[in-house]
Write a structure and sequence with these properties.
The chain is an alpha/beta fold. 31% of the residues lie in helices and 16% in strands. The chain binds flavin-adenine dinucleotide.
């Protein structure tokens, strides 16, 4: 295929990194527009995070109905069998998408992008991959997702363990047999909760090492029959998909349109009860509209959560560890996750909880680990220790800007982007679902499409205007970073050490990693930016080169 972009001597018009929802959408749409596009992924196949996160129980916390592309040609022919589908079904979904969109033919798998340099003469990127090849492109689009860099803390003796040790995000594709095994799980984040639930059913012993209790939410999972799916599609799907762009986090629902602070105690209790019965993320982002900013409303939400949760934990000694009297941090400012039988696990004889505040991990040993004064022995050690979220996948690529310094160096003292999609010093490089965009606060496929549409339009506009080089200004990036910081400072989020603030990574600058103003506000800003001719970007026309 020949290049569509006038005067582009590179191998491709566009090189995309990442075959998740975002990268595949770019591939399909740009290719349909006639661009010469290629896609590279380190994973063995399409699916993004669902290739890596194949641990038992790995599933979404968004309902399947909106955890898919909005194209009716796709959703009309696709049924998830559960309200919250698991990774195996998500992989089947990506197979199905490929059967309609024919994506794999333009993808290279098992290949990691390691670095890139920008050629100022041709305005193209040279992209290096770990197979030793270099590929050139005019536009370099990074769709590396928010979880491309799994993190294991630097425990003493980490390499000495003789059993099977794995991070949840690097789970072996062939699986791990947990039946009758002694399993240690370090961490209680979203992935940990899912693994613990499954392990509790078949392992001889599951020992859970908890630093901070996860203020989880009942998933209220259910199977969906073919008939139910047909009914949902007829009655709800289009409305849910249309609603995404008008709701704070790109879901099918939004915050309750009233502040808890403005309600009588009875009214407040009634709404809490109703949203709790709905469960899922509705309890987090469909609750009173002041819970993430008003400390009293937030505490009321926490107290409700604590009392409901304690009812399920038989051992009173565990109440204080799993659902403490006082909140460990404001409710919802660390990402809560959905659970199914998480608390019931701790009522079983084969599941033990170790509170790392009282018994910190001293070191990993050949047989297991030492925490407090106790020595634990395991067959399998699971690091459910999270990710260098949002920016980690980008900065681990040694992409050098026009001054020869890479993204990691540019962002060391603070991330600078314009609109959460481009950074000064990196012309023709764009990123999706990345830092200072809604990313971690937005349903994945929603952002892949809505932020993705902006990017596709941007590239079309650049092509139509014969722009060979587009770069954001320092001033625009500084203003955008300040804007995101100002918004988060008006909320309760800064009161917790969460990955939203990069606080789970030693040495990472503490700053909000996502745009916290909500998707509708974000879309309004970026779309106005486009209508106004992209202020904050500087352009060099192709004609200037000749
Ligand atoms: P991803 O799906 O993360 O895809 C990124 C791809 O880039 C990966 O395949 C990776 O291999 C590739 N890549 C990265 N770096 C390189 C490199 N240097 N070279 C080559 N390839 C590279 N979001 C929700 O909205 N709802 C949920 O319920 C939800 N649940 C989640 C559960 C888990 C366990 C995890 C880990 C994430 C979850 N997410 C959820 C977030 C999820 O990341 C998004 O939903 C969605 O996958 C984002 O799509 P993406 O295309 O942006 O990135």
């Amino acid at each position: 295929m020949t290049n569509k972009i006038n005067g582009n001597s590179a191998d491709y018009d566009v090189l995309i990194v990442g075959a998740g929802f975002a990268g595949l959408y770019q591939l399909k749409k740009l290719r349909d527009l006639g661009y010469n596009v290629t896609l590279v992924d380190a994973a063995p196949d399409i699916g993004g995070v669902w290739q890596w996160n194949c641990y038992p129980g790995a599933r979404v916390d968004s309902i399947g109905a909106i955890y898919q592309y909005s194209d009716p040609e796709l959703w009309k022919g696709w049924d998830y069998s559960e309200k919250f589908p698991d990774h195996t079904e998500l992989r089947e979904y990506f197979d199905y998408v490929d059967s309609k969109w024919d994506l794999r033919k333009d993808c290279t798998f098992n290949t990691r992008v390691t670095g890139a340099t920008f050629d100022e003469d041709t305005n193209t990127w040279s992209v290096a991959t770990d197979d030793g090849k270099t590929t050139t492109c005019r536009w370099f689009i990074l769709c590396t997702g928010f979880a491309a860099k799994p993190v294991v803390p630097d425990f003493d003796g980490k390499d000495s363990f003789k059993g099977i040790a794995t991070h949840t995000g690097l789970w072996p594709q062939e699986g791990i047999d947990m039946k009758g095994k002694r399993i240690g799980v370090i961490g209680t984040g979203a992935s940990a909760v899912q693994v613990i639930q499954e392990a509790s059913k078949e392992a001889a012993q599951v020992t859970v090492f908890q630093r901070t209790p996860n203020l989880t939410i009942p998933m209220r999972q259910k199977k969906i029959s073919k008939d139910e799916n047909a009914k949902l599609k007829e009655e709800n799907y289009q409305a849910w998909l249309d609603a995404r762009e008008n709701n704070f986090a790109g879901f099918e629902f939004d915050f309750y349109p009233k502040a808890a602070a403005d309600c009588t105690p009875e009214e407040r209790e009634a709404v809490f009860r109703e949203v709790w019965e709905t469960g899922a993320f509705n309890w987090w982002l469909g609750n009173f509209n002041d819970v993430l900013a008003n400390p009293e409303s937030n505490l009321a939400q926490y107290n409700f959560w604590r009392d409901e949760t304690r009812k399920r934990i038989k051992d009173p000694a565990l109440h204080e560890v799993l659902a403490p009297t006082a909140p460990p941090h404001p409710y919802g400012v660390k990402r809560p996750c959905l659970e199914q039988w998480f608390y019931e696990c701790f009522n079983q004889n084969n599941v033990e909880l170790v509170d790392l505040k009282r018994e910190p991990i001293e070191r990993i040993t050949k047989e297991g680990l030492i925490a407090g004064d106790r020595e634990f022995e395991f067959d399998i050690l699971v690091y459910a220790t999270g990710f260098d979220a949002v920016s980690g996948g980008l900065v681990q690529i040694d992409a050098k800007g026009t001054d020869g310094r890479n993204l990691a160096a540019h962002w060391k003292d603070g991330i600078k982007t314009h609109l959460g999609m481009a950074s000064p010093g990196f012309p023709n490089l764009l990123f999706l679902y990345g830092p200072q965009s809604p990313s971690g606060f937005c349903n994945g496929p929603t952002c892949a499409e809505l932020q993705g549409d902006w990017m596709i339009r941007f590239i079309q506009d650049m092509t139509d205007r014969d722009v060979a080089r587009a770069e954001v200004t320092e001033e625009a990036a500084e203003a955008w970073a300040k804007g995101t910081h100002d918004i988060i400072n008006g909320t309760l989020f800064p009161q917790a050490n969460s990955w939203y603030l990069g606080a789970n990574i030693p040495g990472k600058k503490r700053e909000v990693l996502v745009y916290p103003g909500g998707l509708p506000s974000y879309l309004e800003i970026v779309n106005t930016n486009r209508e106004d001719g992209y202020p904050g970007f500087e352009f060099e026309r192709a004609a200037a080169l000749t």
